[in-house]
Amino acid sequence: MRLSTKGRYAVMAMADLARRPDDRAVSLAEIAARQEISLSYLEQLFARLRRRGLVISARGPGGGYRLAREAERTNVAEIVLAVDEPLRATRCAGHAGKGCMTKGERCLTHDLWEEMGLRIHDYLASVSLADVVAGKLHAGRSVAA
Fold first, then answer.
1. What is the value of pTM for the model shown?
2. Which domain holds residue 113?
3. What is the pLDDT of residue 73?
4. Mean pLDDT of 103-132
């Protein structure tokens, strides 16, 4: 399963917010420059993140975005799901209760891909923004810099 740019960029931008030492609001232009992400793309992502209660926005001079809660209490799966990225690996995604085959049957490998998607979701749900910023995987291994 491959995560699209929406999910990856949302996590990158949220990690950028989480690593700020103070609680000041950060403009999307600053994040866009540091993370090399299009400003207009970030605006779309942050509208979704704000609607899901993951960030707080402030207008005016000194305005921008802040995390809505501590980085330790925000997990990566929440961020990915907030930008409408389903964590599914099967091709049956849009077939309400039916399989992906022509007659509505499940493909031979459906259970394999479904289980993999569940494990990916569980893993991303176990990793907090604080873990990402600290460079640590949930299992406590350090990420090479």
1. 0.82
2. 5-134
3. 96
4. 87
Instruction: Supply 106's token pair.
Output: 């499940």
DSSP letters of 1-16? ----HHHHHHHHHHHH
Rounded CA-CA distance 70/85 in Å is 23
State how many domains the chain has.
1
**Tokens (6 digits) for 60:** 């005016």
Structure tokens at 16: 């950028």
The H-assigned helical ranges of the chain are: 5-18, 28-35, 39-51, 76-82, 110-126, 129-134
The distance from CA 41 to its chain's CA centroid, rounded to whole angstroms, is 14
Q: Which amino acid is at 3?
A: L
Q: Give CA–CA dist 66/51, Å, rounded.
A: 14
